[in-house]
Amino acid sequence: MPNSPLDLALRELLDRYPTQVRPRTPPLNLRNAGGMSGSNLWRFDTDIGPLLARAWPPEIVDPAPLERTQRWLASISDLPFIPSAIPSADGSKLISIRGRFWEITPWLTGSPDLGTSPERDHVRAAFRALAIVHERLKHQPDASTGPSPGLGRRLNELDHWIGGGFNRIEVVLLANPSEPRRELALRWLRLARSVAPQIRNMLETASRTVLTLQPCIRDTRRDHFLFQDGELSGLVDFGAMGVDCVVGDLSRLMIDWFEEIAGLELEAQALAAYEEIRTIGQAERRLMRVFKESALFLGPGHWVRWHFVEGRDFEDPDAVHRGLNRGVERFERLIGKSNLPWSS
Q: How confident is the model over 166-170, as a mean pLDDT?
């Protein structure tokens, strides 16, 4: 095993586990395959099967949210597609080593359906599984009623853009005329400025709606749903879990997975599969549009901020262009719809 600081920390982690949890061969460094969570991952084979070691990003200094997520997942660990943390020799599931929090979970096999037209069986399986997770987690003591925290955060984010964020990013973009992604960013900026007041009014009204709140995944990307032989084999990456309304999870997955051409048909099948397990309330259904349209508005802005302001590095060199291009094109299609209040 190499001797980088992370590899040395991984050795310390593995030493805290029983023999059957330790690797038979050197762990495979998956680097930042943890995606947007910023985690580092290693896969390794053991006497109890393939496992995954995760080092959460060093920016996480409070263990409470991670411990809460582990508690939620442990309560549904009987579901075959849920990876619940494995206890160390002393019973700990979240371990602090060299300034980072670590955990070990089962490695779930399978591949995501990343095609432009996902298989219908995959769609139904994913949304049915999401309903099962929601139905099981609604009994957690963290459940309550109130406005959606996610919509409240989006309203605050929009106020940041309106209150000077648009102007500041425009200065940055105009100062970089040779940047290849500049024109995409300017396309988003022009459109976002033009509809920001209407989006804000919609968000402000929706953010006052009282809903059932419960543990939710809050980052339901298509990459996180794994399939094998047509069945859902794994649901991964719970780093964003928190209390919110379930329609946020539904909307996020539909936006990420369904393109516009077949989107309405797929959405109907997805919601029908979901409602085989859990009924979507009228208030939740009304807010689905707000979640979707505010996400399409704000999504490209995240890529703009990450690249032009924060200078984030992504292992995939095309990630920024791909994410920004897809986001801007979908936002432009949204603005072009004739049934929206800001359409001409």
A: 97
